[in-house]
Specification:
Radius of gyration: 14 Å
Shape: globular
Strand content: 25-35%
Structural class: alpha+beta
Largest sheet: 7 strands, mixed
Strand order of the largest sheet: 1-2-3-4-5-7-6
Number of helices: 4
Order of helices and strands: EHHEEEHEHEE
CATH architecture: 3-Layer(aba) Sandwich
CATH topology: Aminopeptidase
CATH class: Alpha Beta
Number of domains: 1
């Protein structure tokens, strides 16, 4: 693995983001990337979307929201999506993306980052716990709400 770096989602990276692959079974835990990208249109002031590059290759996409006026507390500083290409999973790419997200949350004055995910075998729960998220509740739909306190 080369030097990882984070850049804003752009016209030059969006096609590669849409082509990130998943390991078998992961697709049931993740909506299409285009859903997450569409959030920028909804509120470009609060949406934070970045691409992780290894050299010049797109290896991951991360999308978050920072809105201290969001009516739902867990949506004020929230990781909406993280996609790491199947071939790059297990190399620290996801951890790097979460660390960068935490740094951005600190810069913006937040004291935590939340994530909401569906539990299940092959899902993201083990990853989120490895990088420091702790379950704190669940949504009305039974999804896990977890947080990292900064």
């Amino acid at each position: 693995m080369g030097e990882l770096r984070l850049v804003e989602l752009s016209a030059s990276t969006i096609v590669a983001v849409n082509n990130l692959s998943l390991k078998p079974g992961q697709e049931q835990f993740l909506a299409p990337v285009s859903y997450g990208i569409a959030a920028t249109v909804v509120d470009p002031q609060t949406t934070w979307q970045r691409v992780v590059l290894d050299a010049d290759e797109v290896v991951a996409f991360v999308s978050a929201n920072f809105d201290d006026e969001a009516p739902v507390e867990h949506f004020q500083s929230v990781l909406w999506r993280i996609n790491v290409d199947a071939d790059d999973q297990g190399r620290g790419v996801g951890r790097f993306a979460v660390e960068q997200l935490i740094e951005e949350a600190r810069k913006r004055g937040f004291d935590r980052v939340d994530v909401i995910y569906e539990a299940g075998e092959g899902g993201p729960e083990a990853f989120f716990q490895r990088v420091g998220f702790t379950p704190v509740g669940e949504t009305e739909y039974g999804e896990v709400i977890a947080e990292i306190r900064l």
